[in-house]
Design brief:
This protein is mostly helical. The chain is built from five helices and no strands. Helix 1 crosses helix 4, helix 2 runs parallel beside helix 5 and helix 4 packs antiparallel against helix 5.
């Protein structure tokens, strides 16, 4: 019997041969409009998903940078704020809360937006592999069909050859059709899942921003008050 490697080489060769025949119009290629549409939707979905994932990661990185720089500015203000000045104690609390607020925002964005997106895009590679596999099995199926037709139409009929060709054809057909059917059922479900994913992520982002800006606004008012105290304390000098 042929070694596994030799078998794979032969498989690749006969697939390549089959594709050449199809391009030359010498062999009929199986077309499946429904699958083509689903696959096209999938590739678009994948491209959109990866783009959004990348943008969300960049967004989170920017929040981390803002958090760090905001923290540094606050800490420096605290360092240079003399203990004899009014509002010294309040400032400590503001600096502390400012850091906590940024940290909470950063952690929840990572969890509720970036990680959710990560889980969503993780499904694509396995599906992509199965679409490629279906493509290979389709070529095998077409090849087996054309071989069977050739054997059946031969001038000299050969029962054994015909039986073997029929068996090969039935096997190739079953393998292809099972895979095709699975993908036809799964791809539309996956495609529709993008809506739920986008809704979840952007509702989460909206809520998180809302809480963050609202709380940050309160802290800003407190900081303004501290500065007003300092101004009043030194207004006569």
């Amino acid at each position: 019997s042929m070694g596994l490697f030799a078998k794979q080489v032969q498989k690749k060769f006969s697939r390549a041969q089959e594709k050449v025949l199809q391009k030359l119009g010498k062999a009929v290629e199986t077309k499946d409009e429904r699958f083509e549409q689903s696959a096209s939707n999938f590739y678009q979905q994948q491209a959109e998903g990866h783009k959004l994932y990348k943008d969300l990661k960049n967004f989170l990185s920017a929040v981390k940078v803002m958090h760090e720089s905001s923290k540094r500015v606050s800490e420096t203000l605290q360092e240079i704020y003399s203990s004899e000045w009014d509002g010294h104690e309040e400032l400590k609390a503001i600096v502390w809360n400012n850091d906590l607020l940024w940290e909470d925002y950063e952690e929840k964005l990572a969890d509720q937006a970036v990680r959710t997106m990560e889980i969503y895009v993780a499904q694509f590679s396995e599906i992509k592999e199965r679409i490629a596999k279906r493509g290979r099995k389709l070529v095998d199926y077409d090849s087996a069909r054309h071989h069977l037709e050739a054997v059946q139409n031969a001038k000299k009929k050969d029962e054994a050859k015909t039986a073997k060709a029929e068996e090969e054809f039935n096997k190739a057909q079953t393998v292809f059709e099972d895979l095709n059917q699975e993908l036809l059922e799964e791809l539309p479900i996956l495609y529709n899942s993008r809506i739920g994913c986008y809704v979840t992520i952007f509702q989460n982002i909206s809520n998180l921003r809302d809480v963050f800006y609202r709380e940050m606004s309160k802290l800003n008012h407190n900081l303004y008050e501290v500065m007003s105290k300092l101004e009043r304390q030194h207004s006569n000098k």
